[in-house]
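Work Package 3 (structural annotation) set out to generate three-dimensional models for the target panel prioritized at the project kickoff. During this period the team completed the workflow that converts sequence records into discrete structure tokens, so that structures can be stored uniformly alongside our sequence database. As a representative example, we reproduce one entry of 295 residues exactly as it appears in the project archive.
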Amino acid sequence: MNPFEKINSQYDYADRMKPGGFLINGKPALTQIDPALVGKYVIMVVRDPLLAYGGDPAELLSQRLENRVLAGQSGMFTTYSGYYKGAHISIVSGGSGSPEAELVLVEFMHHTKANTFLRLGGAAGIHEDVRSGDIVVASGVVRDEGMSQAYVTPTYPAVCSYELVAALAAAADGLGFRFHVGIGRSQDSEHVACGRPAVNGYFQPRHGEIIDYYHRARVLYWDRESSGIVTLCNLFGRRGGAVVSVDNNLVTGEAFSPGDGQDHAIETVFEGLANLHRMDTAAQAQGKRYWVPTL
């Protein structure tokens, strides 16, 4: 028996609160994707002015794909699909934060066969080892955002897929980029939860401890999406991960530089997913569920 069937059978609103959300004209309501067009590997990007894309990042990044198609467009999200070195990839752009990421993840996971979800974006560095322009491949993420805590206890770990980490690290190394593998942190607030005073200088003593606290814990960066994506992937049996470019460092004082390192992060993601596709193909050929280095 499905472990959730007993709980749902006793839920008074089960008949009107269906998994997967609403449909409009037969398509998932919020992303308006055609599920048949969505690839196995999904890159999740934010329409982030700090990265200076110069347009919708899904449309711009999708120009790297062969046989590119518009797989979905709504007022909130845009999705393109195509192929990169044999890997069937979809790129979806939307707003910032884990609540926005949840909307994509639920519709894609419920309606498509995508099994790998990767956050690509920018972040602030909070450790002196990380310089502006560097790339961080997340191995895990601190869950300081609220969306994932609605799903499961805060002590549940946001651990990135080891296959995805290996594929991305190999890509960054092969391309000769400066990169790190380590822990990130996600939070909802872009201001006080990052140690930055808000309106009228609003600040509390505990906010003044945040940067030093996570620096001492050897957290390398923070953003707003990574932990939500990775947590839901773990809960629902998918592979999740994150690659970020660092465009400033709060510990060393390196000033903000829009989009610094993002081109390298983009190259790393595409080559990393091509690596992962080869790894998946090798594992499948051997009848293995998981890729291991001997394959």
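The chain has a mean pLDDT of 96.
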